[in-house]
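Renewal narrative, Specific Aim 1. Our central claim is that a sequence can be written position by position from structural information alone. The example that follows is taken directly from our test logs and has not been curated for this report. It begins with the C-alpha coordinates describing the chain, in the order in which they were read.
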Protein backbone atom coordinates (compact mmCIF):
# COMPACT_ATOMS: atom_id res chain seq x y z
CA UNK A 1 0.00 0.00 0.00
CA UNK A 2 1.45 3.30 -1.05
CA UNK A 3 -0.88 5.57 0.91
CA UNK A 4 -4.43 6.24 2.05
CA UNK A 5 -5.51 7.24 -1.46
CA UNK A 6 -4.84 3.70 -2.67
CA UNK A 7 -7.56 2.28 -0.33
CA UNK A 8 -10.91 1.60 -2.02
CA UNK A 9 -14.16 -0.16 -1.03
CA UNK A 10 -14.37 -3.91 -1.60
CA UNK A 11 -16.17 -5.01 -4.75
CA UNK A 12 -17.44 -8.30 -6.12
CA UNK A 13 -17.36 -11.34 -3.82
CA UNK A 14 -15.23 -9.45 -1.24
CA UNK A 15 -18.08 -6.98 -0.65
CA UNK A 16 -20.46 -9.78 0.47
CA UNK A 17 -18.40 -10.75 3.52
CA UNK A 18 -20.61 -10.38 6.62
CA UNK A 19 -19.35 -8.30 9.54
CA UNK A 20 -17.76 -10.21 12.42
CA UNK A 21 -19.90 -11.10 15.45
CA UNK A 22 -20.11 -8.40 18.10
CA UNK A 23 -20.60 -9.11 21.80
CA UNK A 24 -21.72 -6.25 24.01
CA UNK A 25 -21.55 -6.43 27.81
CA UNK A 26 -22.28 -4.22 30.78
CA UNK A 27 -21.03 -4.76 34.31
CA UNK A 28 -22.38 -3.28 37.52
CA UNK A 29 -20.42 -3.29 40.78
CA UNK A 30 -21.88 -2.38 44.16
CA UNK A 31 -19.46 -1.40 46.90
CA UNK A 32 -19.64 -0.24 50.49
CA UNK A 33 -17.05 1.47 52.67
CA UNK A 34 -15.06 -1.15 54.58
CA UNK A 35 -13.71 -0.90 58.13
CA UNK A 36 -10.48 0.68 56.90
CA UNK A 37 -12.45 3.14 54.70
CA UNK A 38 -11.47 1.30 51.51
CA UNK A 39 -14.34 0.30 49.22
CA UNK A 40 -15.36 -3.37 49.37
CA UNK A 41 -17.23 -4.90 46.43
CA UNK A 42 -20.32 -6.73 47.72
CA UNK A 43 -22.16 -7.47 44.47
CA UNK A 44 -21.41 -7.71 40.77
CA UNK A 45 -23.78 -8.22 37.86
CA UNK A 46 -23.04 -8.86 34.23
CA UNK A 47 -25.41 -8.69 31.27
CA UNK A 48 -24.32 -9.48 27.71
CA UNK A 49 -25.63 -10.19 24.25
CA UNK A 50 -23.95 -11.76 21.25
CA UNK A 51 -26.77 -10.76 18.92
CA UNK A 52 -25.68 -7.17 18.35
CA UNK A 53 -25.25 -6.16 14.74
CA UNK A 54 -22.28 -4.03 13.76
CA UNK A 55 -23.59 -3.16 10.29
CA UNK A 56 -27.21 -2.22 11.05
CA UNK A 57 -29.52 -1.44 13.97
CA UNK A 58 -30.14 -4.40 16.27
CA UNK A 59 -33.68 -5.78 16.08
CA UNK A 60 -35.55 -4.44 19.14
CA UNK A 61 -37.91 -7.44 19.16
CA UNK A 62 -34.98 -9.73 20.00
CA UNK A 63 -33.95 -7.48 22.89
CA UNK A 64 -37.48 -7.27 24.29
CA UNK A 65 -37.92 -11.07 24.26
CA UNK A 66 -34.64 -11.45 26.09
CA UNK A 67 -33.71 -14.61 24.19
CA UNK A 68 -30.33 -13.20 23.18
CA UNK A 69 -29.58 -11.49 26.48
CA UNK A 70 -27.71 -13.45 29.17
CA UNK A 71 -26.98 -12.37 32.73
CA UNK A 72 -25.68 -13.42 36.11
CA UNK A 73 -25.00 -11.84 39.48
CA UNK A 74 -22.75 -12.66 42.41
CA UNK A 75 -23.03 -11.54 46.02
CA UNK A 76 -20.35 -11.54 48.66
CA UNK A 77 -21.39 -12.31 52.21
CA UNK A 78 -19.91 -9.74 54.52
CA UNK A 79 -17.98 -11.00 57.54
CA UNK A 80 -19.98 -8.81 59.89
CA UNK A 81 -23.47 -9.46 58.48
CA UNK A 82 -25.85 -12.26 57.60
CA UNK A 83 -27.38 -12.81 54.17
CA UNK A 84 -30.35 -10.51 53.53
CA UNK A 85 -33.52 -11.93 55.06
CA UNK A 86 -35.37 -14.22 52.67
CA UNK A 87 -32.57 -14.43 50.09
CA UNK A 88 -31.94 -18.16 50.48
CA UNK A 89 -35.67 -18.97 50.32
CA UNK A 90 -36.08 -16.82 47.19
CA UNK A 91 -33.16 -18.58 45.51
CA UNK A 92 -34.74 -21.99 46.23
CA UNK A 93 -38.10 -20.85 44.82
CA UNK A 94 -36.40 -19.71 41.63
CA UNK A 95 -34.46 -22.99 41.54
CA UNK A 96 -31.22 -21.12 41.12
CA UNK A 97 -29.76 -21.95 44.50
CA UNK A 98 -26.98 -20.18 46.32
CA UNK A 99 -23.38 -21.25 46.18
CA UNK A 100 -20.93 -20.16 48.78
CA UNK A 101 -17.17 -20.27 48.74
CA UNK A 102 -15.29 -20.56 52.01
CA UNK A 103 -12.16 -18.47 52.38
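The sequence written for that structure reads:
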Amino acid sequence: MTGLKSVSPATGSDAAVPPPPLVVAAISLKAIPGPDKASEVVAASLVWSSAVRADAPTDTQRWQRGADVKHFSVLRKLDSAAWPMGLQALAKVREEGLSSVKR
